[in-house]
Amino acid sequence: MSSGNTVFKDLESTEEVPAYLKRALVSEVNTIRDTMHVVEHFTEHFINTLIVSLSIEDTDL
After folding, report:
1. Which DSSP state fits 15?
2. Pairing with 46, which of 11, 13, 37, 59 sits 20 to 30 Å away (CA)?
3. For residue 14, what pLDDT is reported?
4. Is 12 within a domain?
């Protein structure tokens, strides 16, 4: 049984990853990145509005 730093080296494959798999992985990462940009864009204004509305002091009381 391997020990120390060689454990992960034993897991490494000597085979080449197919090109279609590389493209699929890059595509998934790009999809996640784009989704996060969309979510950030739409929630940023909502959260900023919420913070401003909570921080405004009510002077009518």
Report:
1. S
2. 59
3. 79
4. no
Domain ranges, residue 30: 17-61
Q: What is the pLDDT of residues 4-24, one digit of tens each?
A: 677 777 777 778 889 999 999
What is the Cα–Cα distance from 46 to 40, expressed in whole angstroms?
10
CB 35 within 8 A of CB 43: no
- What does R_g of the chain's alpha carbons equal in angstroms? 24
- Nearest-angstrom CA–CA distance, 47 and 7: 46
CA distance 14 to 11: 10
Measured distance CA(38)–CA(18) in Å, rounded? 31
Return the DSSP state at 5: T
Is 1 part of a structural domain of the chain? no
